[in-house]
């Protein structure tokens, strides 16, 4: 073992005796046995009779290679918890080692408490094995069904970010985060090593990264597996960590070495936190462990004369022909009996008492930790009354305001209301380097940006006690927030719309987690994942085509309808109403899309509440139909702030130039309401849909995102072909606001021309209005090139 830092000396309480080692090796054998049994066996789970082909599952699924290392770490963390009474959360980046974590939580007793049918006896072990990776059973990864888990680990790269989020504002928590050396090759994990720049020992818990270097991925070697200890230590040291390397293939040497490393890491963390909480900032680095053990440790050394242990061949199922190959079957039985199951489980199939006593008690068990079931810790968020922030609206569409600025003021007061005396709290804003840019800068009136590195006289709003999390990585913002929420806190992720796509697969994985969590009564509800998309595709005045992309809407629409919500507030007061709802909600993913630039404001707060509660409404003041009149000649609909302005400007042109034309103006704020109620719980019922859009009138729909999204949503509604959607069509550049809508054929003039094409009848003045719109489009093209700004009648337009 090499040591990359000065560690505190081992105290007497941390002594690791020969008897301790023997007990841990036996517990480890039990965990390894149950791991193999879950992968292979559907019957004869305790090998109380010779192994036969019919005892083997017809489909062999699961991952053996990483599992022995995960189980060893679990065993030694259990010993650390019992000795120090530490609250420990176990995050496993190699989540495909699911059978190891299921086995560990079963051995400690948590699994049977959560799932009484999987009892602590032979019948329970039979069920444990039969359910693993089988229809009607449990997935093979460390999924939401696994007690103690906040991290599924299927898509690699997010373990350390999730661990960090769980540690923020949980001062008494130690998060042991196992990082696979394959996972360590991903971009998100590479960025996650920067955590020491943001983790405050004064008010946060600790993250102990354990880089598990077993040398191989599914089909080849890993970078860290073929790198020297010195190079790995140098890299981690440069990121703010003090690594210790533990390596070997003899369990009797590795167990004591890892025990020492964990004990010393705990001592160093305690010293660092104690100094910080006494007001003495330390230059000490956070400890980390690099653990080198063979992949597939204690499994078959060779299979059919080919080396397996320590290679990529141990990654999944090292013996695959056991149902048809007698030699493989005998090798599997020898492998499993090498763990001595008869000495680990008694005649009833229960774990023998001296091993059962190795588990911590109650919620100190990692499978039972409330930090892994964060809804147990969640406190209600004290959202202030919205009247304090609401804009006064005398007439709709006559005043401009930066739409998101009111949200910044609300978030400021949320910070103030949720900050605890020790400088911690239970609400945080996560954002790339854009909080002020996104007009949320009011939060800096009560807190700073979190920063643990040196601060100069020229910095703005940086401090160690700051609690606004700004890091130029959408992956980290999303991952930190997910870990923060799953461990019982509240938060918001704000990002430029186009670049939130960087982290969209993380949001998809979180949605899948929540989708299954709701079916588990033992999982308490957690605060919703709230994502604010601003600096949108329509308003990137000094940025170009790279910043213009509304694709996250399309990515979210197909996800679990019980989880996802998409909100398109047209103004500040609707944003306040929606934000109030989203911040109070649980177990949802809320996508809020609204621009940060000055926009026209339309609704009073009371009107906004009613509008948001309905999900959509007819804006009678903008149309020309009588309240109790017949169906309109054409429906003008919008979803989104810029589309709302353009559809209103189109409605005004139609009113002025074709006054006999009967129009209805509809605004949609809850996009998923366009789905039918059978497809989404927010779907507008048939009566409401007809009240908004009629049964057969053509609808000209201005939409914030790609047109196809609306067409997808209204499938199954009456005569969906009558909806003519204009939205973003991948046309963009650095240009004026109005030129963006012209380029994408969603301008007021394009909408008027579309309405005149689709109306039930041709009103007088229609030809002249069409000619006017075409001339205006031609004039616009010339004007912006000559004057570098939009035409005055567009730039200064308000509703009248």
Structure write-up:
- Keywords: Lyase, Thiamine pyrophosphate.
- Belongs to the XFP family.
- Its cofactor is thiamine diphosphate.
- This is Phosphoketolase family protein.
- It contains 25 helices and 23 strands.
- By secondary structure, it is of the alpha/beta class.
- Helix 17 (572-584) links the parallel strand 16 and strand 17 (589-593).
- Helix content is 36%, strand content 13%.
- Strands 1-5-6-4-3-2 form a six-stranded mixed β-sheet, with helices on both faces. It has a six-stranded parallel β-sheet with strand order 13-10-14-15-17-16, with helices on both faces.
Describe what is shown at a glance.
Pfam families: XFP, XFP_C, XFP_N. The protein has 800 residues and is of the alpha/beta class.
The best one-word shape is: elongated
Distance between the termini: 78 Å
Number of helices: 25
- List low-pLDDT spans: 1-12
| Structural class category | alpha/beta
Beta-strand content: 5-15%
Question: What is the CA-atom radius of gyration, in angstroms?
Answer: 30 Å
Structural features:
23 strands, 800 residues, 6-stranded parallel sheet, 6-stranded mixed sheet, elongated, 25 helices, disordered N terminus, alpha/beta
Secondary structure layout plus pairing:
Layout: E1 2-3, H1 18-40, H2 67-84, E2 87-92, H3 98-108, H4 110-114, H5 122-131, H6 159-167, E3 173-180, H7 187-192, E4 206-213, H8 229-238, E5 241-247, H9 251-277, E6 286-292, E7 302-303, E8 306-307, H10 326-337, H11 341-344, H12 353-356, E9 400-402, H13 405-418, E10 427-431, E11 449-450, E12 462-463, E13 468-470, H14 474-486, E14 490-496, H15 504-517, E15 529-534, H16 551-556, E16 564-567, H17 572-584, E17 589-593, E18 598-600, H18 605-614, E19 616-618, E20 634-639, H19 641-657, E21 663-668, H20 686-693, E22 699-703, H21 707-713, E23 723-726, H22 737-743, H23 748-758, H24 766-787, H25 792-795
Parallel strand pairs: 2-3, 3-4, 4-6, 5-6, 10-13, 10-14, 11-12, 14-15, 15-17, 16-17, 20-21, 20-22, 22-23
Antiparallel strand pairs: 1-5, 7-8, 9-18, 19-21
Domain Xylulose 5-phosphate/Fructose 6-phosphate phosphoketolase N-terminal: 24-376
InterPro entries: THDP-binding, Transketo_C/PFOR_II, Xul5P/Fru6P_PKetolase, Xul5P/Fru6P_PKetolase_C, Xul5P/Fru6P_PKetolase_CS, Xul5P/Fru6P_PKetolase_N, Xul5P/Fru6P_PKetolase_ThDP_BS
Protein name: Phosphoketolase family protein
